[in-house]
Specification:
Helix content is 52%, strand content 14%. It contains 12 helices and 8 strands. An 8-stranded mixed sheet has the order 3-2-4-1-5-6-7-8, sandwiched between helices. α11 links the parallel β6 and β7. The longest helix has 18 residues. The chain is elongated. The structure holds guanosine-5'-diphosphate (GDP) and magnesium ion (MG). The site of guanosine-5'-diphosphate has 17 residues, from α6.
Length: 300
C-alpha cells in the first residue's frame, strides 16, 4: 500500500464523518456553513478554531466569488493545508549522537513509536541505540528491549525503579563510546504525581545537557489522537515544562478525530513531525499537511 493510501485508510472514519455531515448540503447557504462548522468540531478541530476557520472561509468565498459547496470545500482544504508547515525530522544526524527524548502520558504510544522510528532510521543505514529511561515498570523496559531486538538497535537499561536520569546518562555515554548516530530515550508517562513526572523529565534533560551540550536535539511529545481536546492541555503542560521541538500524533487509524493534528499545530506552533497510523513497524509517516488534509476531508 502506498503511504497516501495508508494515511487515507487511517483517516477514513474522520473523512466519512466530515463528508456525511457536510455532504447532505447541496444548497449553498447558511445551513452549509453551520454543517461545516459542526463537522469540524466533530472531527476535533476545536470549537474556537472551527468557527474561526468557517469565518475565514466565508470571507474568502465572498472575495473570490465562489458559488457552490464543492468549490467551497476545496477552498477550505487549501486554506487549512497552507496554514500548516512541513517540518521533518532531519535525515542526517551530526553531531553524534543525535539525542531524541520521547515524552507523553501513559498509553499514548511512546514505546511503539520509538520502535517505528528506530526501524525507519535503521532502514536509512543509521546506527541507533534505545535507552529505557521509563524505569517505572519492568514491563516498559522489557517492551523497549523487544523493539531494540526487532529493529537491530543497541539497548541500554537499568533495573526497574532506578533513576531515569542515570539511565539517560549511561545511554549517552554508551552511544558516544560506540559512535552511534542516534540515541532515542523512552520515558515514563506516569509517576506518583504529575509534579514528580515533570521533575523527572526536567532532570533527564539537565543531565543530558550537562553531558552533551548539543543534546537533546529533539524533545518529542506523543499524543493519542483519540484523546480529544484534552490533547491540547497535554501539549501545554509538556511544552511549558520542557520546550518541545515537535509532536507525534498516534492512533489516527480508526478514529474520527483526525482534526486534533490541526488544532494543536495552530494553537502551539509546535510542528507535528510524525503520525502513527497503526500498530505495525511500518505504520509511521511524516506529517505532510496537504496529504493529511486531503485524506482527512476527501471530496465532497
Ligand atoms: N491503532 C494504533 N495503536 C497504536 C498506535 N501507536 C501505539 N498503539 C498502541 O497503543 C498501545 C500503547 O502503546 P505504548 O507504546 O505501550 O504506549 P506508551 O505507554 O506511551 O509507551 C499499544 O497497544 C500500541 O500497540 C497507532 O498508531 N495506532
Ligand atoms: Mg511505554
Amino acid at each position: 500500500m502506498s503511504l497516501f493510501s495508508r494515511l487515507k485508510e487511517g483517516l477514513s472514519k474522520t473523512r466519512s464523518q466530515l463528508t456525511s455531515i457536510v455532504g447532505g448540503e447541496s444548497r449553498f447557504d447558511e445551513q452549509f456553513f453551520e454543517s461545516l462548522e459542526d463537522a469540524l468540531i466533530a472531527a476535533d478541530v476545536g470549537m474556537e478554531l472551527s468557527s474561526e476557520i468557517v469565518d475565514d472561509l466565508r470571507e474568502r468565498i465572498r472575495e473570490d466569488g465562489i458559488r457552490d459547496t464543492h468549490e467551497a470545500y476545496e477552498e477550505l482544504k487549501r486554506m487549512l493545508s497552507s496554514g500548516l508547515n512541513v517540518v521533518k525530522l532531519p535525515e542526517d544526524f551530526p553531531p553524534k549522537p543525535w539525542v531524541i527524548l520521547v515524552v507523553g502520558v501513559n498509553g499514548v504510544g511512546k514505546t511503539t513509536t520509538i520502535g517505528k522510528m528506530a526501524n525507519e532510521m535503521r532502514r536509512k543505514g543509521k546506527t541507533v541505540m534505545l535507552g529505557a529511561a521509563d524505569t517505572f515498570r519492568a514491563g516498559a523496559i522489557e517492551q523497549l528491549r523487544i523493539w531494540a531486538e526487532r529493529t537491530g538497535c543497541d539497548f541500554v537499561a537499568q533495573q526497574e525503579g532506578s533513576d531515569a536520569a542515570s539511565v539517560a546518562f549511561d545511554a549517552i555515554e554508551a552511544a558516544k563510546a560506540r559512535n552511534t548516530d542516534v540515541l532515542i530515550l523512552d520515558t515514563a508517562g506516569r509517576l506518583h504525581t504529575k509534579v514528580n513526572l515533570m521533575n523527572e523529565l526536567d532532570k533527564i534533560v539537565r543531565v543530558i545537557k550537562r553531558n552533551t551540550p548539543h543534546a537533546p536535539n529533539e524533545i518529542l511529545l506523543v499524543i493519542d489522537a483519540t484523546t480529544g481536546q484534552n490533547a491540547l492541555r497535554q501539549v501545554k503542560v509538556f511544552n511549558d515544562a520542557l520546550g518541545l521541538t515537535g509532536l507525534i500524533v498516534t492512533k489516527l487509524d480508526g478514529t474520527a478525530k483526525g482534526g486534533v493534528a490541526i488544532s494543536m499545530t495552530r494553537q502551539f506552533k509546535v510542528p507535528v513531525k510524525k503520525i502513527g497510523v497503526g500498530e505495525g513497524l511500518e505504520d509511521l509517516q511524516d506529517f505532510d499537511p496537504r496529504s493529511y488534509v486531503d485524506a482527512m476531508f476527501g471530496d465532497l
